[in-house]
Amino acid sequence: MRTSAILTTTALSLTLALSFGAQAAFAQTAAPQNTSGAEAAQTGDVVVTGSRAQHRSRLSSVVPVDVVTSQSLQNQGSTELAQGLSRVAPSLNFPRPSGTDATDSVRPATLRGLSPDQTLVLVDGKRRHTSALVNINGSAGRGSAATDLNAIPEVALDRIEVLRDGASAQYGSDAIAGVVNLHLREANHGGGVNVSYGEYDTDVKPANSSRTAHDGATTDVSGWVGLPLGSDGFVTLSADLKKREATSRGDVDPLVSPATVTTRYGDPDQKSGAIFANFGKPINDAWKIYGNAGFASNDSKSAAFFRHATASGNVASIYPNGFQPIINLKSRDASATVGLHGQTGDWTQDYSLTAGGNELNFYTRNSVNASYGAASQTSFYDGQLRYNQLVFNADISRPFNVGLSSPLTLAFGLEARKEGYRIEAGELESYALGPLTTKSAGAQGFPGFLPSNEINQHRSNIGVYVDAAGNFTDKFSYDAALRFENYSDFGSNTSGKLALRYDLTDAFAVRGSVSTGFRAPSLQQQYFTSTASVLDTSGPSAIIVQTGTFPATSNVAETLGGKALEPEKSTSTTLGFVFHKGPFEVTVDGYHIDLNNRIVLSENLSGADITTLLAPYGVTAARFFINGVDTTTDGVDLVANYRFPATDIGRFNLSFAYNTTNTTIDALPTSSLTTPHVLFARVRQYILTNSSPENKGTLGLDWSRSGWSATARATYYGDVIDPNADYTKDIHTGKKTLVDVSASYRFKTNTTLTFGADNLFDVYPDKTLAALNVTSGNGAGALAFTRFSPFGFNGRYLYGKLSQTF
């Protein structure tokens, strides 16, 4: 789909809206804008994301912004922020991969089918730090280092604004697909406590077996309290504790007798906790101090593939029946912001300092280093990844009367940022080749980081911007921005944006934007390295060599053509309309995004010529991050809402959201070696362009009467391909529709009791055919369902929730 197709689709939607009006209204709605009954009726929600102009609502904004309330998230069974958002935001997806090492535990979300790191995450308008993890395995988001949305507890949030438009000129790097702005709860009184419990009750039917499963038991306890800070300030405290047991959806293992399920393929076992504090306090009539601080921890245990008793990586005297390695990831997130906001004459000023970081400690449990034989330990510390950032923001604005229908709001400011990234090695036995040199080195399941992998890198950048917003006339509004950034490692970039809106009538408006954007290569992509020592017996004598992922500027990568990474650059155009009249509202926005010089992780280059080239470094195979992939993304977002008039049987609200997205590759990097090698093959190309469904739609119905309320939602997911080098062996998820339902009763004591079912009809992605599953070696029978399923593969989830407000 190209720009012409976007215009055609937008024009068709416009014709339908004007032709059918309210008669068709009940078939279209806007779940993400407000998905909870009476809240959806509020068409005047003021948004602050995507424009410096004041007092613009989500329906009067010049660019598409979804507003998701905390209540709409709490009306779901999910206790994960990213998953909850994906069910109500039309173009946001949150796949649930398994068998992908640490990515099982730190799962990335995607917007508009682009990479997870091409969406910027803010907390109350301030840049949130990313995870220290770079996703290097075969899952959606391969090669990215994204923000972990699940490190922020839902209970701490008042609402979420999702800007579906390129915004690098306004917010800097990473905002190519859009911006997710998380607004913390602000309260000086009141509070609430929530207790929920749920588990999967499902019939698992892979290719070679069937069984009933009751697992994934999840207990979540959360709460918040608002406290006064003096007579005119507030402190809001929020906390969340969660325990989730593992799920298992693998098929039977044909290599054991009798055939049984030997591997644990599903969600990890997790114990997590988070606490957030948010405060604000006036200093005088013109100035106030504000800030927030948060800490989150997650102890996650995912499963590697089963090692059979006869496997070369096993030590039979320790595990006579084989073993299941467990990858234990302990994540720690911390952040803090302090700022001053005030007025000097007509000038509004905001100054803030934000610090944040993520620390990942890796352990392998229930494992063995076979090269140490019976003397091997069974539990290993594998090392640490750490990312941190420090951000200073200064934002200044004032209105100017320039003789137009409204003042011109001129804003300017700067953002200065310092980042750091560090890798620490694991303990010796986690990576070393022991005395049995013909055996596998390192901990089975997840070998540790080597001392040669250790790095400690930093960089800084400063960006300055100017923004002008206002109205030419009562019907014609605008927003323009220009931003210049300079990085200490790769240089500078300039981005610009112009957004316009024209209200043809009080009910109908046309809007569009054109912008350029960029994404700086992350420190994780520039410097991540993970190698394994292996025994090479191909020569006249056995030698220990390395293979793995190397920095793009390392000697190994440069020998194979690697170069210093450059920023990704984009050009984005949007065109759409807003229609709202009485109880009906609909927005349709088409978009076209050209992305050049995308950063991807190369194939693992190997072969006789590679071995010869890398012989001086003791390396036989290598992969590294490269630029050079150009893509085009086209799509349409439709979001609509209809509020039925109140009757004796209660209030009804119907919502609909739909997204169609298509990404194509226009150019690929080429090898500079004498014997050319494929740097980015078919499997990696499909992961980049097709790991999100091209079509996704959600139809929801909310009902309320007296103390009763109920919600029903059907979500359609288009087919997603799990690619193979041989296209005849591609695995498809199939086109699936999931139905979620819940019912609540609110007692006069402000106690609410909720029962619900997510995926009521127990829908799974298409099962992996036996011939395409792993049938030999580690993980036999494991991959019963594709890890690219946009809704996971856990089946029906039943839950209950008790909430008390005060």
In short:
The protein has nine helices and 34 strands.
Your description of this structure?
The protein is mostly beta strands and 806 residues long. The two termini are 52 Å apart. Residues 1-44 have low confidence and may be disordered.
* Count of distinct structural domains: 1
Number of strands: 34
What structural category characterises the helix and strand content?
Answer: mainly beta
CATH architecture: Beta Barrel
Q: What's the CATH superfamily, by name?
A: TonB-dependent receptor, beta-barrel domain
Highest-level CATH class: Mainly Beta
Number of helices: 9
Question: N-to-C terminal Cα separation, in Å?
Answer: 52 Å
Q: SSE layout and pairings?
A:
Layout: H1 3-20, E1 65-69, H2 70-74, H3 81-88, E2 92-93, E3 110-111, E4 119-123, E5 126-127, E6 157-163, H4 168-171, E7 178-184, E8 191-204, E9 211-229, E10 233-244, E11 269-282, E12 287-303, E13 326-344, E14 347-365, E15 380-400, E16 408-425, H5 428-431, E17 455-471, E18 476-487, E19 491-503, E20 508-519, H6 523-527, E21 530-536, E22 543-549, H7 555-559, E23 568-581, E24 584-601, H8 608-614, E25 619-623, E26 625-643, E27 651-667, H9 682-690, E28 695-705, E29 708-717, E30 721-722, E31 731-732, E32 736-746, E33 751-758, E34 797-805
Descriptive terms for the model:
mainly beta; five-stranded mixed sheet; 8% helix; 806 residues; Maltoporin, Chain A; disordered N terminus
